[in-house]
Amino acid sequence: MLLVLEIESEKPLYQQIRDQIVEGIAAGRLVPNQTLPSIRQLAADFGINLHTVNKAYDQLEREGFILLRRKTGAVIQINPRLAEDWEARMRTLLAEAFAKGAAVEHIMQQCQNILTGFQEQRNANVSLTDEGTNQ
Amino acid sequence: MLLVLEIESEKPLYQQIRDQIVEGIAAGRLVPNQTLPSIRQLAADFGINLHTVNKAYDQLEREGFILLRRKTGAVIQINPRLAEDWEARMRTLLAEAFAKGAAVEHIMQQCQNILTGFQEQRNANVSLTDEGTNQ
Amino acid sequence: MLLVLEIESEKPLYQQIRDQIVEGIAAGRLVPNQTLPSIRQLAADFGINLHTVNKAYDQLEREGFILLRRKTGAVIQINPRLAEDWEARMRTLLAEAFAKGAAVEHIMQQCQNILTGFQEQRNANVSLTDEGTNQ
Amino acid sequence: MLLVLEIESEKPLYQQIRDQIVEGIAAGRLVPNQTLPSIRQLAADFGINLHTVNKAYDQLEREGFILLRRKTGAVIQINPRLAEDWEARMRTLLAEAFAKGAAVEHIMQQCQNILTGFQEQRNANVSLTDEGTNQ
DNA sequence: GTGGTCTAGACCACA
DNA sequence: GTGGTCTAGACCACG
């Protein structure tokens, strides 16, 4: 669980946790059925409050990224439904770049690069896992 | 200056003002060197607080979309430098879709559709403006 | 704001608050654009903690029943989209009655009675409001 | 006794057991006087704790779906009395849909569809049972 | 041990 | 004043 929390950031701590776990899934560092640290454990590791982690995990569960169980804690389990406001959020973000005069091709290239990065990381993680099971 | 402020919205008023101006620029309704209403004018028109409008204009200036001048008020003037956290925000949003299993091609197609929509609006506004100057 | 909270109930306090507000909307006691008590106010009125009320309001906002604003507090505003798991929850509840041997007609009649009750209360509340504006 | 327990589910194990038995009764797969596996048998079959199964059976007995006997184990025996909070739970669920603006007719139609589904399953199971006794 | 809930008290951003 | 976040510490249900 690689997490880098910045206490000084304007982004809430629980949002930082949530975002990094989502990125971890996208990059294949976190795979379905993998267990995340317990709420208390993660809070202790980073010296933050239990409720802050709880709020992040709670949101991740509602968004369909993880499943919270009493005994085992949190496990990755993807519900493939995409949030309904995803397109609206994407629209605002793209408008910001387009208004700055960025060329459509350039914006698309940046998106492609990010996605390709996820894909390569995921492939790398998959082959690592495969090697691990083959040994 | 078409502005539609929804007092009932979950989005802060200053954020609504900022977002609509950004979308207006993206769609070509607002072009460089065009003057925006003064802070007190806009506040009076909508019956909202001066500070609210001030905050929106302030953010737009910091983001490089407008230039605030003492006498002339606010004018659109695009600073093509993108916000430094734009890529990070895009990264998080793309991760959300990719983590849910969406295909790269599908995500890219959605982005393309949104951007094409902006382009068409801008083209429509540009030709309207041309007709206007021809009269 | 008629709220009856039972501290001894097995149902969490925040869930009781959430459920009663939803029922209040169904019965027309709470109508769109009506303001709810502030989080602190409601917490003080019932001698419970601010965070408990906050959790209820937070859920209501996510479910599309209310809108939370910094200045004015919480206002009723219906997003007509129904929760996607609504049918699954209804299915479980109906199975419970059907397994007990309840006749389909009887179950349907109970549902009808409840819904008719909401409808009548709503109509009564509407006419009260009308009389109020006419006076 | 077809039981499919999902260790990954958000629902507690004992609740899954309870719900599936209730749905089994509703669908006619489980009929009065039919014996259920013993607590230790079912726990062994699924490799889960005795307490977990015990809790499910305990709840089913309190709800009036089964009868626990020392020697014979658990047998289906319907106590037609509905849980006293059934109507309250139904009320909340119906309020949710009605508050969102759903028409009474539409809500009723959905309930009817679900119940008709149960009825058809039960009829199918009954005829299967009849054929079985005829052999 | 886990997550789920509730309490108590604090600081900040918003308008 | 409002809601939003974070902290600290407690008890309970679950397995």
- Count helical runs of chain A: 5
State the end-to-end CA separation of chain A: 23 Å
Give the CATH topology of the largest domain in chain A.
Arc Repressor Mutant, subunit A
Total strand segments of chain A: 2
Strand order of the largest sheet of chain A: 1-2
Q: What is the molecular shape of chain A?
A: globular
Average pLDDT number of chain A:
90
Outline the low-pLDDT stretches of chain A. none
CATH architecture of the largest domain in chain A: Orthogonal Bundle
Largest interface: A-B, 41 and 40 residues
**Strand fraction of chain A:** 5-15%
- Quaternary assembly: homotetramer
Q: What is the chain-wise order of helices and strands of chain A?
A: HHHEEHH
CATH class of the largest domain in chain A: Mainly Alpha
Can you describe this structure?
4 copies of one chain form a homotetramer. In chain A, strands 1-2 form a two-stranded antiparallel sheet. Chain A has helices spanning 13-26, 39-46, 50-62, 86-99, 104-134; strands spanning 66-69, 73-76. The longest helix of chain A is centred in the C-terminal third of the chain and has 31 residues, at 104-134. Chain A has 5 helices and 2 strands. Chain A is mainly alpha-helical. The first copy, chain A, folds into 2 domains: 1-81, Arc Repressor Mutant, subunit A; 82-135. The structure holds a DNA duplex (15 and 15 nucleotides).
Question: Main traits of this protein?
Answer:
135 residues; globular; DNA-binding; 2 domains; two-stranded antiparallel sheet; 5 helices; mainly alpha; homotetramer; Arc Repressor Mutant, subunit A
